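F.,

This is the one I mentioned.
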C-alpha cells in the first residue's frame, strides 16, 4: 500500500513552517499523529516519550490506539519500547500472532482488534527521545517507502521537542541577561546618587555600597535599589 505522497509533501512543508513560529509541543505532536495516520492510511498512531527514566504515553489518535499505547507504558514492552531501546524501526504484519514478542501487548491487540503495528525511533544522534507507533486493524506488510515516510514524521516530531527545548533555554538566557542588565543599571544609578551625596568618585561610592551590603549581609543590588527607590543614604 503506497502512502499519499502529495499529502506527505504538504505535511512536511506545514511542519517546517511551524518550527519557525511559537508553538506548543503537545499540539505539534498531536498534529504529527493525525497527519501520519492520514498519509499512511492507518487506523491510528501514537507517540511515547522517554521521561524520568521510563517511556510514557503522550498522545494518540483515538481511544483504541491510546489503550494500546498505555498497554506498552504499563508493561514496558511493545514496538515503541523496541524502537526506543534499539534505535531501529520494527514492523510486525500481525502482532496478534506474536505472543513470542510481547504477550501482554499481543493480547491487548486481539482484544482491541489491532493487527499490524510498527514502532519508529525518535532520536537525534545518540540522544533518544521516544518512539512513534503505527497501527492498523488489518494485517499489513509494511512497505519500505511507508516506513521511510514514517521515519520522517518521527524525525519531525523529534525536531519539535528539541527545538522547543532550545527555545526555552534561549528564553531563560535572555531573562538572565535582562536581570543582569537591570541590576547593572540600578547599581550605576546608586553609585551616582551616593557619589553626589558623599562628594566622592563613583568608584569610591561603589565601595561604600559594597561595604554597606557586607555589613548588613544583603545583596549589592538590594542596597542599590534601596538607595535609588526608597532614599537610603550610606
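My design for it:
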Amino acid at each position: 500500500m503506497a502512502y499519499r505522497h502529495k499529502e506527505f509533501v504538504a505535511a512536511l512543508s506545514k511542519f517546517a513552517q511551524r518550527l519557525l513560529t511559537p508553538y506548543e509541543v503537545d499540539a505539534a505532536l498531536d498534529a504529527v499523529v493525525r497527519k501520519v495516520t492520514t498519509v499512511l492510511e492507518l487506523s491510528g498512531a501514537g507517540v511515547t516519550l522517554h521521561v524520568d527514566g521510563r517511556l510514557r504515553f503522550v498522545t494518540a489518535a483515538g481511544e483504541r490506539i491510546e489503550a494500546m499505547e498505555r498497554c506498552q507504558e504499563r508493561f514496558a514492552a511493545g514496538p515503541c519500547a523496541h524502537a526506543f531501546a534499539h534505535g531501529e524501526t520494527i514492523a510486525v504484519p500481525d502482532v496478534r500472532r506474536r505472543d513470542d514478542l510481547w504477550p501482554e501487548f499481543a493480547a491487548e491487540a486481539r482484544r482491541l482488534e489491532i493487527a499490524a503495528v510498527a514502532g519508529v525511533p525518535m532520536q537525534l544522534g545518540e540522544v533518544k527521545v521516544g518512539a512513534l507507533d503505527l497501527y492498523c486493524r488489518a494485517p499489513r506488510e509494511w512497505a519500505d517507502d511507508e516506513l521511510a515516510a514514517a521515519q520522517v514524521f518521527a524525525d519531525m516530531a523529534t525536531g519539535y521537542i528539541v527545538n522547543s527545548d532550545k527555545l526555552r533555554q534561549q528564553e531563560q538566557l535572555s531573562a538572565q541577561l535582562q536581570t543582569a542588565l537591570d541590576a547593572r543599571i540600578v547599581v550605576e544609578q546608586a553609585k551616582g546618587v551616593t557619589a553626589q551625596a558623599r562628594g566622592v568618585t563613583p568608584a569610591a561610592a561603589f565601595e561604600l555600597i559594597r561595604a554597606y551590603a557586607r555589613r548588613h549581609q544583603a545583596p549589592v543590588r538590594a542596597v542599590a535599589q534601596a538607595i535609588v527607590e526608597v532614599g537610603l543614604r550610606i
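The chain has a mean pLDDT of 85.

Talk soon.
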